[in-house]
Amino acid sequence: AYSSSRLSTDQQRIDHFNQLIERCKLPGLQRVRPAHVLPDTTNRAMTGLSVHHVHYIASKMEAEGFTPRTDDGRGHDIPIVVQESDETKLGSESLSKWTRVVSKEAQFAPMSADFTPKQFYTSLGNGHFFQALNLFRTESPRMFGEDPYTKYSPWRDHRLTEAITQGIEAVVLSPATTRLDRAFISEMLNGSFHYKWAIGTDGSVRIVPGSQRDVTSSAFEALSKSLDAFELGVLVEQHTKSLKERKKEKEQRRSKL
């Protein structure tokens, strides 16, 4: 477990994060199918996911194409998940919570027919990303766009299809990873997106101290990493409304030319 007073500097927090990953991870990188992933109960201060942000990420994937992670750090972040089952306390808790959420909120993707409670994965920092992929997997109705009643389709993007059917390379942690350690890892994943990651050929993963990713992040992207599920939902609604208004203004100016 960690003490926030003991980990007072960025360097201390990075060092502790790297030590935790080294201690808790299973060997190598493993391919994890989105259909077998649900949010860990400790993520986002235990508030879960924002359905609006899940759809926002899916709409960006659809508009810009799916970009797999590359060796230079481009594309999506490396996911960190916990191997779980309903036989552990945190696995059972995460599964029960997500089952309730999906039953109440129809705009999340339904769980897969081949989902097995005996082995699944819980996401610590890429929960919205995995559930956005599941919207394509289930060809769920869109929330945003010109026609929100049309459905997501993965079949026009072979890289997206491959991510859904073959899985995403991920760091997989042991189910013995404690609640406090999971919460700390989630917090670091959501708060250290601007740092570079070192990924070894043996599957070792660590944040590189004092480094910065060569990626420009908008204020929206930075905020989206730190808010809880409710705050994030409000932010996405405001952001998408602003984008619509700007698009409308641009079309009106164009029509006057």
How are the elements arranged and paired?
Layout: H1 10-24, E1 30-32, E2 37-39, H2 43-46, H3 51-64, E3 80-84, H4 89-104, E4 120-123, H5 127-137, H6 158-166, E5 168-173, H7 179-191, E6 197-199, E7 205-207, H8 219-224, H9 229-255
Parallel strand pairs: 2-4, 3-5
Antiparallel strand pairs: 1-5, 3-4, 6-7
Helix pairs in contact: 1-7, 3-5, 3-9, 5-6
Which structural traits does this protein have?
257 residues, alpha/beta, 5-stranded mixed beta sheet, two-stranded antiparallel ribbon, 9 helices, 7 strands, 45% helix, disordered N terminus
What class would the helix/strand composition place it in? Answer: alpha/beta
| Individual helix count | 9
Please write the string of helix (H) and strand (E) elements: HEEHHEHEHHEHEEHH
Number of strands: 7
- Give the terminus-to-terminus CA distance: 63 Å
Uncertain runs: 1-5, 213-217
In which range does the helix fraction lie? 40-55%
Note the overall shape.
Answer: globular
Q: What percentage of the residues does DSSP assign to strands (E)?
A: 5-15%
Average pLDDT value? 81
Strand order of the largest sheet: 1-5-3-4-2
Using only CA atoms, what is the Rg? 19 Å
Largest sheet: 5 strands, mixed
Summarize the structure.
The protein is α/β, with parallel strands linked by helices and 257 residues long. It has 9 helices and 7 strands. The protein is globular and about 55 Å long.
Explain the overall architecture.
There is one protein chain. The chain is α/β, with parallel strands linked by helices and 257 residues long. The protein is built from nine helices and seven strands; from the N terminus they run H-E-E-H-H-E-H-E-H-H-E-H-E-E-H-H. Strand 6 (197-199) and strand 7 (205-207) form a beta hairpin. It is globular. The chain starts with 9 loop residues before the first helix and ends with a helix. The model is unreliable at 1-5 and 213-217 (pLDDT under 50).
